[in-house]
Amino acid sequence: MNPLDYASALFDYITDNPGSSAVIAVLALAALALAFLLLRLAWRAICWLFGRYVAPRPVEDVLTIVSASIATGVSAQGMWRFSGDVLGFDGPLQLLLFAFIEVAMVTSAVRARRNMRENGRAGVDGLAVWALTGLSAVLSSMDSGSFPEAVFRLAAPIVAAWLWERSMAIERQRLTGRTRINWRLTPERVLVRVGLAESSDRTATDVDTHRRLTRVALTAKRARALRETGASDRKQARALAKLDKAMDRAVEHTGLVQDQARQQQMLAQIAALYNTAKLTEIQPRPFWQQLADDKAAKEERDRVAADAVAQLRGFSDRHAPLPSADASTVARTNGTPRVTGGGTTGGAAPTAPVTRPRPPVSRPPKTVTRKQNGTRHGTPAQPSREELERRITWLHDLAKTTPTLSVTDLRDRAVEEYGVSPRTAYRYIEQAGLAPSSTAAGDTTRDTPSDTPDGTTRDTPDDTASSTSSDAA
Q1: What percentage of residues in the chain have a pLDDT greater than 70?
Q2: What is the mean pLDDT of residues 80-101?
Q3: Distances from the Cα of 247 to the Cαs of 227, 234, 238, 466, in angstroms?
Q4: Higher per-residue confidence, 345 vs 400
Q5: pLDDT band at 385; cut points 50, 70, 90
Q6: Are the beta carbons of 111 and 127 closer than 8 angstroms?
Q7: Residue 352 above 80 pLDDT?
Q8: Of 211-225, 282-296, 453-467, the least confident
Q9: In this structure, are residues 72 and 105 in contact, taking their beta carbons and an 8 Å threshold?
C-alpha cells in the first residue's frame, strides 16, 4: 500500500469512529508532551554531567575513560558468556552476578586514585587492579570458540588496565613532580656518553671556551711537573712550547684578555690542578663532631648566663655603704639628723651610716586639683615596688662606683635622674640605708612635684636649714 492508501484508510476510520479518534488524538498529544519533557530532562542531566565531570578534565583523561569503559564492556560481555556457558547462570541470577570482577576492578581503580591523591602512591589497590584484570582476561578467554577470539578476550581487559595505569602515572607526576622510574639507557644518555651531545644547556661558545681554558691549565700543570721532577731541557722546552701555543689559542678564541670572569675561571682551574696532592692531607670533619661542638657551646653559654644571673642577684642583695662621715658633719635640724658632707675632723674615727628599716607604705591614689587661675596641679603616681627597688639598687651602684660622693651629691644625682623633689630623693637614700632616716613614722614616700608654692624644685626648708646649720658649724 502506498501512503495515499494509508491516509485514505485513516480518514475513513476517523469518519466512522469520531469518538475513539478524539481519544486517541488526546492520548497521542499527551504521549508527545511526556516524551518532550523526558527528553528535555535527559538533556539537562547530560549537560550537568558534562559540565561537572567532563569539561574540567583534560581531553586525554576523557578519552582514557571512554576507551577504558569500552574495554571493560568487552570484558564484561566475555564474562556474560562464561557465566552462562560454564557456570550455568540464567535469567536474573546471570544478570546480577556476571560482572562482579569488573565491578571489583573499577572499585579498586577508584580507591587507588584516591590513595594517589592523598598519599602519593596507589598502594595495594593498584596491584589489585592488575590482578583482577588478569583474572577477568583469563576467564573470558577460556570460553572462546577460536584462537583469535581468545586473544581478543585477553587483550581487552589488559588495554583497560594499561589506560588506567597511564592516567595514574600522569596524575602521579602532576602531584609529586617526578616520574615513577628513570631509565638508565636512553638516547640522550647514549649521545652524551659518546660525546655527541651536551648534558647541560651550554652553548657551543661556552663549551669551546671551557675546553680551551682547561687545555691551558692541563698544559701548565704538565710543564710544572716536568720542571719539578728535573726533566731534560728538551722535554721542558717542548712542554713550554705546548703551553705557549695553548695560551695563544685561548687568547685568540675566548676573549681571555678582556673577560675577567674567564681569567678567574682559568686561574681557579690552574690552582686546583696545582694542589691536587694536598687532597691527601685534608682531614674531613665528621658530622658528629659538629654536633658535639654545638652542644658544648650551648652548655658554655648556659653556664655563663647562670653565672651572670647569680652575680646580679648577689649584687642586688648587697648594700654598698657610702664613705664614712665625721660626727661633726652631722647636724640636726628640727630634731632630725642630716649628713652635710664627708671626711673626718680632728682624726675622729668614721662612723657607718645609721640604717633604720621602714615598713611598706601604701600610696594614696593620684589626686588632681584645679587652681583659681585654671591650671592643673596633680600629684604624680607613686612608683611601683619594682621601680622603687630599681632606684634603690641604682643608688647602691652609684655609691659603689663613686665612693667620694656625699649624701648631698647622691640626692642631686637622684633628682636629676628621676625628676623628683630633693626630699623624695633623700628618702630614697634613707631607704637604701645610705643616710640616717629623717622621716617620721606617719610620712609617706610619694613624689611631690613641687616643694614650694611657686612650683620650683629647689631644696626643701629642712634641707636648707640643715645646710645652713652645717655651714654655721
Answers
A1: 76
A2: 81
A3: 19, 20, 14, 96
A4: 400
A5: confident
A6: no
A7: no
A8: 453-467
A9: yes
Query: Grid coordinates representing 77?
Result: 560481555
Helix (H, G, I), strand (E, B) or coil at 282: coil
CA distance 304 to 299: 9
For residues 102, 108, 113 and 114, what is the CA-based torsion angle, rounded to 10 degrees? 130
- Other CB atoms closer than 10 Å to residue 266's CB: what's the count? 21
Q: Which three cell numbers stand for residue 370?
A: 584645679
For residue 166, give Cα distances in angstroms to 157, 159, 161, 218, 362: 14, 11, 9, 50, 83
Residues 6+ apart with CB under 8 A from 396: 318, 319, 320, 432, 434
CA distances from 452 to 59, 176, 421, 426, 457 (A): 94, 81, 10, 17, 7
Q: pLDDT band for 241, please (50, 70, 90 cuts).
A: very high
Per-position b or e across 45-63, b if 16+ CB within 10 A of its CB: eeeeeeeeeeeeeeeeeee
d(CA 177, CA 171): 10
Strands 336-339 and 368-370: unpaired
Q: Are 21 and 13 in contact (CB under 8 A)?
A: yes
Report the distance separating Cα 256 and Cα 288, nearest Å: 45
Q: What is the mean pLDDT of residues 184-198?
A: 79
Least confident range of 31-35, 412-416, 443-447: 443-447
**CA dist., res. 393 & res. 315, Å (int):** 9
Identify the pLDDT of residue 357.
Answer: 52
Q: Tell me the one-letter amino acid at 93.
A: L
From the list 326, 365, 358, the residue with the least C-alpha distance to 345 is 326
Which is nearest to 420 in space by CA: 446, 394, 389? 446
Q: Pick the closest to residue 246 from 266, 268, 265, 264 (CA basis).
A: 266
Count of residues making up the chain: 473
Cβ–Cβ < 8 Å for 70, 76: no
- Is the predicted pLDDT of residue 358 greater than 50, yes or no? yes
Q: Backbone dihedral region of 375: left (phi > 0), alpha (psi from -120 to 50 degrees) or beta?
A: beta
Q: Does residue 353 surpass a pLDDT of 80? A: no
Distance CA 161, CA 75 (A): 11
| Nearest CA among 251, 174, 164, 170 for reference residue 213 | 251
Q: d(Cα 117, Cα 171) in Å, to the nearest integer? A: 8
Contact criterion met (CB below 8 Å) for 368 and 376: yes
Of 150-154, 170-174, 375-379, 463-467, least confident by mean pLDDT is 463-467
Averaged pLDDT for residues 152-169: 84
- Helix or strand holding residue 471 (H, E): helix 461-472
